[in-house]
Amino acid sequence: MVRVMDPIQDRAGLERKLATTPYHVDRERAHIWIIDPDLCLQCERQQCIVCCPAACYTPLPDGRVKFSYEGCVECGTCRIVCFEFRNIAWTYPRGGFGVQYRYG
Amino acid sequence: MSQERVEVIVVGAGPAGVAAALTLARAGVEVVVLERGAYPGAKNVMGGILYRQPTEELVPGFWREAPLERAIVEQRYLLLTEEDALGVTYRTPAFGQPPYNAFSVLRAEWDRWFAQQAENAGALLATGVTVEDVLWEDGRIVGVRAGEQGELYADVVILADGANSLLAQKAGLTREWRPEEQALVAKELLRLSETEIERRFGVSAGHGVAIEAFGASTGGLLGYGFLYTNRDTVSVGTGALLSDLITHEVNVSDLLDRFKRHPAIAPLLEGAELVEYSAHLIPEGGWRALPTLFADGALVVGDAAGFVNPLSREGSNFAMISGKLAAETILEARAVGDFSAFALSRYWQKLEESFILPDLETIRNVTPFVHQRPYLLREYPEALTRAFQHYLTVDGTPKAQKYGTIIRELIRDLRPTRLLRDVLAGVFQLVR
Fold it and tell me: Which of residues 161-200 of B touch A (CB under 8 A)?
């Protein structure tokens, strides 16, 4: 399925918010990845894109899903909502890396 | 830390893990807390209201020195429609003076302070350590593996790794959460001056307000919003079950934007500058989704166990008290040198004797009850706000006629037979 509209109404606004979220990005290791990108073509709802509170998942023109781990807040939402295909490999970042809230 | 051994390993330096470590360290137990963040609190988010009484069970008089934001003296509950709001406010000066009832806190600061108390008592805190799995020997859990940092062995491992406890799953103590068992919250921390907060919310220095808003403020979706005043910031957020976000195809950040734009909320936030955006899961599966809480050589505490009361926004108190009870269980087990599941099953008894399991059982049907009746948070707020608008509008209509209209419309909108059915169902399902 190819998404006609981005389910995140204000993605640019969310990205501006995320600019305030502090990270210590691990450049050597992605802690989450899509196991089989082609499997996403069979996924009708692509709930990862809808639900991710950090806008890490974006619809691609060919119907696949683009994921970038750098802005991930490690909440676990994507793993739980991908219950139909279980197509997300989900681990925590290495110690000391990832989101690093100053206030929380 | 290759092949090293301690008495107890705690995974996670949140309120549950630290409460356990603090209790154990005070009793002279050799305890290590492994935290994957660079410091305690780096990964942690809550609304955040911290209750005084349960916290004092761990650190008596903490409020004299801990990093707290404001003492909450006023609670507002709002029922929202697209534009209107109907509310109840409770305020008491008693909550504004010692020993207080609750405080707003920021977790990065609070967690660090709380962990420091455990360190002062003799617990060892290792930050920047991501535990990947538990270690097994003869069917019992005997330690943890933390990647490059090696393996660590102990008599007992306390799983305090939070809402997303991958460790409890790997240890086979629980299954993957379902979307209807976890709520996702997005939160913004917004800066306002201290004096501006005190003026807008009508409180004096050091005092604060907690607002919780329910209803269809969100264009059809069952969500809730909160707004808590900190010293010179306000915490504003919205949360909804993942299953609802899926069904309604809505992102929680969009939901938060709608909440912030609501006419009853927007003026409170005007001109406030965003300091930090965060998001976190809240395990709301409760009684129905309880993991195995004790095993040979392991106990599960706090969010990892799903110890949350979403109705009364309690979580950190469940975490701290469950951590304390887990520690007390271990002390008893240590006295007889038996860390088997049988010996550690005392933890369940202690949870039953506390408020933790009774409260989870009390509210076990609430979420499904409300979920099966979406009109409770959609049609009812509409009907009630309309009634108030009629009642308060002076337009030359004779009162007898106006009251008649209000009653007729309420009967039409609240549908008495359905209401009666719901009341009966409520009595059977919700009251024990």
Answer: 163-164, 166, 176-179, 182, 184, 186, 188-189
